[in-house]
Amino acid sequence: MIRYLTSIGLSAVLLLAIVWSIISNFHKEENGGEALNEVNQPVIKEKEIHTSVGQVEDNQGDAGSFYVDIDESVLYSHDHEHMEQQPEVSALNIPAPDFELMTLDGKTLKLSDYLGKKILINFWATWCPPCTEEMPILQNYYEQHAEDNNAVILAVNLTDQEGGIEPIRKFANDFHLTMPILLDKKGQVSINYEILTLPTSMIVNEEGFLVEQIIGPVTEEMLEEKLGVK
């Protein structure tokens, strides 16, 4: 008799456990399907943008189909704007620091030798692409208009940042440059003129005052406006 009652009791407990399990799962599904998600589906969470690697990923670690190299896109945008923008012109009114430099053909020139003329001092280097672009424009003005307009162009090369004199000589020959090319071998003149960007040009008036700074390659129209044309 006792064994029979025990068997009935165990059966009842098992039946209650099954019923409770069914009711519990039913309530979980009604409350948002948590049990289903936990067993059969990944929980989709908010996506995160990892700018360090430029990928869009969810926080399960799976890479998405969209890829952007953040660093390169920013650099490209910046370079594009730099190439498209007009040269930056700033007005000045300070005495031009005098200097004495050797030219590519071995002469020695001083800035003060040209007092009474309009002077454009162009700071440049052979490895600077915008310098290469503007050099024919400077040479053309020097040949065609400088003498008639009491003007001179001094091309000051940042020789301390070059690989010797020969690249400069080759550059001058390739572009058939006849304007004075001055060699800033120690970099002191570029320091005195606070040159941070190439090319940079300085306009000095007839009285020896710096009147304008031009950051970026000059154009033919700018030369005619700043130095004159007849």
Tell me about this structure:
This protein folds into three domains: 1-41; 45-85, no CATH class; 88-227, Glutaredoxin (3-Layer(aba) Sandwich). Helices cover 40% and strands 25% of the residues. It is built from seven helices and eleven strands. The strands form two sheets. The chain has an eight-stranded mixed beta sheet with strand order 4-11-10-7-8-9-5-6, covered by helices on one side. The protein has a three-stranded antiparallel beta sheet with strand order 1-2-3, with no helix packed on it. Strand 10 (200-204) and strand 11 (209-215) form a beta hairpin. It is globular and about 110 Å long. The protein starts with a helix and ends with a helix.
Produce the secondary structure layout.
Blueprint: H1 2-30, H2 34-40, E1 47-50, E2 55-58, E3 63-67, H3 70-84, E4 88-95, E5 100-103, E6 108-110, E7 118-124, H4 129-146, E8 151-157, H5 166-174, E9 181-183, H6 188-192, E10 200-204, E11 209-215, H7 220-227
Parallel strand pairs: 7-8, 8-9
Antiparallel strand pairs: 1-2, 2-3, 4-11, 5-6, 5-9, 7-10, 10-11
The number of domains is 3
CATH topology of the largest domain: Glutaredoxin
Radius of gyration: 38 Å
CATH hierarchy class name of the largest domain: Alpha Beta
Query: For the terminal residues, how far apart are their CA atoms?
Result: 130 Å
Question: Which blocks of ≥5 consecutive residues have pLDDT under 50?
Answer: 26-84
Largest sheet, strands/sense/barrel: 8 strands, mixed
Morphology: globular
Number of helices: 7
Mean pLDDT: 76
Keywords: Disulfide bond
Protein name: TlpA family protein disulfide reductase
GO molecular function: antioxidant activity; oxidoreductase activity
Organism: Lysinibacillus telephonicus
